[in-house]
Design brief:
single chain; 2 domains; 13 helices; Aspartate Aminotransferase, domain 2; seven-stranded mixed beta sheet; binds pyridoxal-5'-phosphate; Aspartate Aminotransferase, domain 1
Length: 364
């Protein structure tokens, strides 16, 4: 019988597995599986979002003019060089779609963000996976894989799901080592959680170099994951190519207004940053105290910790035990991390409660 035949590269995609929001038993649980902001979103963003309730029949501004102007003012950017999309996920797809296709290669790191693999395969390009250096990004390993078929390099900084950070000098070395016709995409979804001295220099590269795209999102520290607002910054030619293939409308009127309001919520962002820095350090210490049980936290500069289970109690056992105790975390066997749990830094009550439960589970 005749039937439509999907492209083989599409059938080679392992579909994205989102963080779970419910437990096996259906009991209430703290969701620490998707790196969302435990404080929600700023009040001003919620009010701005609500103001759009009477305009639901209208198409949003396809040019995202007001949001681009707000971003340009906030980060001292050229508004014409800002691309935007339905989450930064879409911006990542646009980068792959504009610059890679069948026969081309797209490089990213092992233990990298799952969307890079999908974005590469979706357009028929060949994914090329660079080995890590004890879970951290190895710039030399990436450079060693570059061929004349390489078109895009994806790099998250800090990286997800490892939380590892690639310093400015390494980012500069990576860029300097890439041929000019390779687009370097630096995904800064967690950049707001970095200390000011940890600026990786990527935005400055995007300002000055023709082959660097930086992507950002309102889903993480700004607490607007539901509204799917992402953006990117790069050379005008890169932005123009991406505009050709983007969907005409990326996010709603309320979403754009909420994003603009969130951008101005300095206190909320500072509070979220401070809380995360404090409790991430506390949680890392607690994991270190369980090292005799084979637990180890990968050094993180993001709003989560990747905890490795290298002792008797497996990550799967801990995952199930935490779920029974009311904490949903991310177990990532599909990403080569059957021995790891990625745990979002939640509220104080959540992270201390989870730690107590984990201690019981591993017998510490
Ligand atoms: C969460 C995340 C994103 C953001 O995705 P959105 O589509 O903007 O919600 C992008 N990259 C990485 C590495 C992430 O962890």
């Amino acid at each position: 019988m005749n039937a439509p035949v999907p492209k083989p590269w599409v059938m080679a995609i392992a579909p994205y597995v989102p963080g779970r929001a419910t437990t096996d038993s259906g009991n209430q649980a703290a969701k620490l599986s998707s790196n969302e902001n435990p404080f929600g979103t700023p009040d001003a963003a919620r009010a701005a979002y609500a103001s759009a309730a009477d305009e639901l029949e209208r198409y949003p501004d396809a040019s995202a003019h007001d949001l681009r102007e707000a971003l340009a003012a906030h980060y001292d950017l050229d508004a014409d060089r800002i691309i935007y999309g339905t989450g930064s996920d879409e911006v990542l797809h646009l980068a792959a779609g504009a610059y890679a296709g069948p026969g081309d290669e797209v490089i990213y790191v092992r233990f990298g963000f799952a969307v890079y693999d999908i974005a590469a395969r979706r357009v028929g390009a060949t994914p090329v996976v660079a080995p890590d250096k004890d879970y951290a990004t190895d710039v030399d390993a990436i450079l060693a894989l570059v061929t004349d078929r390489t078109r895009v390099v994806f790099l998250a900084n800090p990286n997800n799901p490892t939380g590892t950070y690639t310093p400015k000098a390494d980012i500069a070395r990576l860029h300097a080592g890439l041929p000019g016709d390779v687009l370097l995409v630096i995904d800064q979804a967690y950049t707001e959680y970095l200390a000011p001295e940890d600026d990786d220099g990527a935005l400055d590269l995007a300002r000055t170099q023709p082959n660097v795209l930086v992507t950002r999102t309102f889903s993480k520290i700004y607490g607007l994951a539901s509204e799917r607002i992402g953006w990117g910054y790069g050379h005008p030619d890169v932005i123009a190519a991406m505009h050709r293939i983007r969907a005409p409308f990326s996010f709603g009127i309320g979403a754009a207004r909420a994003a603009i309001a969130a951008l101005g919520a300095k206190e909320f962002v500072e509070h979220s940053y401070g809380h995360n820095a404090k409790w991430r350090a506390w949680f890392a210490d607690q994991i270190a105290a369980m090292s005799n049980k084979g637990l180890r936290a990968v050094p993180s500069k993001a709003n989560f910790l990747l905890v490795l289970f290298e002792g008797e109690v497996s990550a799967e056992t801990a995952y199930k035990g935490l779920m029974d105790a009311g904490y949903i975390v991310r177990w990532l066997p599909g990403q080569g991390l059957a021995h790891g749990l990625r745990i979002t830094i939640g509220t104080e009550a959540e992270i201390t409660g989870l730690t107590a439960a984990l201690r019981r589970i591993v017998g510490a």
